[in-house]
Amino acid sequence: MQEKLYFYYTNDLHSNFANWPQVAGYLKEQKERILERNESCWLVDIGDHVDRVDPIAEAFMGKANVRLMNDVGYDLATLGNNEGITMAHEDLHQLYDEAAFQVVCANLHSLTGDDPGWLQPFVHTQSAGGVRIGVVGLTAPFNAFYELLDWHVSDPLKTLEKRVRQLKEEVDIIVLLSHLGLTEDQEIARRIDDVDVIIGGHTHHLLRTGETINNTVITAAGKHCTFAGEVILTWDHTKQEIVKKEAYTSDVSHLPKDMETVQTLGALSDKADTLLEQPIAHLEKSLEVKWFQHTELMERLTTVLKEWTNADTALLNAGVLLDQLPAGDVTSKDIHRICPHPINPCMVELYGDELMEVVRVSLTKDLTELKLKGFGFRGEVIGKMIFSGLDVETVTREDGNEYVESVRFQGEKLDPDKIYTVATADTFTFGRLLPEVAKSEVKRYFLPEFLRDLLAHTLRRYFGT
Fold first, then answer.
1. Residue 409: strand, helix, or coil
2. In angstroms, rounded to a whole number, what is the distance separating the alpha carbons of residues 375 and 219?
3. SS3 399
4. Phi, psi values for residue 457, rounded to 5°
5. Distances from the Cα of 329 to the Cα of 273, 332, 334, 367, 464, angstroms
6. How high is the pLDDT of residue 396?
7. pTM for this prediction
8. H or E element that contains 280
9. DSSP letters along 29-88, please?
């Protein structure tokens, strides 16, 4: 006798609720259809469901996302870095208190005492025909951030090897929920033989029909839930083994909306607006935001960033502010609207010659006009770099580019052999946007503050009445 086991999954929604009613309808329909046949089905999320870029996620600190998952009927979920490092320790500790699904993540641990009651390293479940399944969850080890929030993420591969040794004596099938990224998933498949399926995320890769390495099926469904994923395992009860593994993804963006979910999102949006209506400051005049020019607001915000981090200098791109602020009351909703990014302040150490190169690169059109997606940035373009604590003299030449003529700190030219502390957005510590910042050996991140917390402070201090 053969039995089919169905897993439907989502990953990396990032609180992008535009497709959520379609996703909800699709998942509900699939689960109902399979359970009506007395077959086994599990709904699974691979993390980064929460992203505080959306007012609903911001106002409810992620708990509305959990409610939405409860309404759909999820069975299992793991954590992504957006759940893990974008909220204070206590907020994450309580995030899944009302979850009707099991949360599994083997390598996340609290440094302040007991782990949350909802956190499990692995889960045992069983099919209708008695097939024993072990599910392990893993999340990416961004400990430079996690440990500032009193969490620690242990090494994913070592953690998994330990859990698999235990599980393979207890279950028939091992499924990994991996918020590690495609490269890590592929490495796990090469090195650990007993993992049957890896359902992945984090790097927003879309594997339409999966990928097989060493008999391990790897799959993932992109980002923002334009696609939902499906894994079908066929278990042969006579042979006592899996005889077929299938992985698919389906574009759900064109499907009918689940109207119950539409209504719930509408109600949550209205309540979020109410929760975010608390006044931050009152402005006597409107404040301009211009992505390619200096403005008083950006200059003040960059100064606050330097003071907040106690750095020698600061640099911040004007594209972090998305819209101007009109005269009158400024609320938390306004702050979130114009600065929605989950970006933290940070400080790095640079030698003078490195800082000079950062200033030079930061003023090039290649960077200022870059339409960035990722690294926490949720805006349109990087925009002009604004400096505090540095006197930067430039000239615009015939090619339209701005060139640096001199950079001074406290009236003196930068000393190429001197170390300067430089505050900026943590965006620039990743990738190759500003290589000298990214490769700095000393980085200090400030958590749980976001740039919008500094923006609120700036408005109260310099512009509020």
1. strand
2. 23
3. coil
4. -60, -40
5. 15, 10, 9, 34, 9
6. 82
7. 0.93
8. strand 279-283
9. HHHHHHHHTT-EEEEEE-S----TTSHHHHHHTTHHHHHHHHHHT--EE---HHHHSSS-
Set out the domains of the chain in order of their start, with CATH numbers. 2-272 (3.60.21.10), 279-463 (3.90.780.10)
- Give whole-number Cα distances, 239 to 175, 183, 196, 197, 215, in Å: 20, 33, 16, 19, 17
Tell me the torsion sign for CA atoms 67, 69, 72, 78. Answer: negative
Q: Enumerate residues 6+ apart whose C-beta is below 8 A from 213.
A: 186, 189, 190
* Measured distance CA(116)–CA(287) in Å, rounded: 43
pLDDT at residue 256, as a whole number: 97
Which ranges of the chain have pLDDT less than 50? Answer: none
- Please tell me what DSSP assigns to residue 334: H
Asked if 6 and 231 count as a contact pair (C-beta separation under 8 A), the reply is yes
Helix axes 259-275, 20-36, angle to 10 degrees: 140
The shares of helix, strand and coil residues in the chain, as percent rounded to the nearest 5, are 35, 30, 40
Helices of type H across 113-168: 143-146, 156-167
Nearest CA among 441, 435, 407 for reference residue 421: 441
Q: CA-CA distance, 448 to 316, in Å (whole number)?
A: 19
- The bridge status of strand 119-120 relative to strand 402-409 is unpaired
Q: Strands, E, within 90-215: which ranges?
A: 102-104, 108-110, 119-120, 122-126, 132-139, 151-153, 173-179, 197-200, 211-213
pLDDT of residue 149: 97
Question: What pLDDT is stored for residue 398 in this prediction?
Answer: 75
Task: Classify residue 209 as exposed, middle or buried by CB count within 10 Å of its CB (0-12, 13-18, 19+).
Answer: exposed
Report the DSSP beta bridge partners of residue 314.
Answer: 388, 423
Query: CA dist 30 to 228, 246, 452, Å?
Result: 11, 16, 40
Neighbour count for residue 110 (Cβ, 10 Å): 16
How many whole angstroms separate alpha carbon 129 and alpha carbon 438?
A: 52
> pLDDT value at position 207?
97
Instruction: Determine the Cα–Cα distance for residues 339 and 381; give it in Å rounded to an integer.
Output: 13
Report pLDDT for 376. 86
Residue-level length of the chain = 465
Q: Report the C-alpha gap between 133 and 126 in whole angstroms.
A: 6
Strands 412-413 and 402-409, bridge-based pairing: antiparallel
Which amino acid would we find at residue 244? K
- In terms of Cα–Cα distance, which of 237, 229, 236, 231 is closest to 216? 231
Query: Residue 405: its pLDDT value, please?
Result: 86
| Rounded CA separation 209/413 (Å) | 58
Q: Is 107 left (phi over 0), alpha (psi -120 to 50) or beta?
A: alpha
What is residue 10's predicted lDDT score, i.e. its pLDDT?
Answer: 98
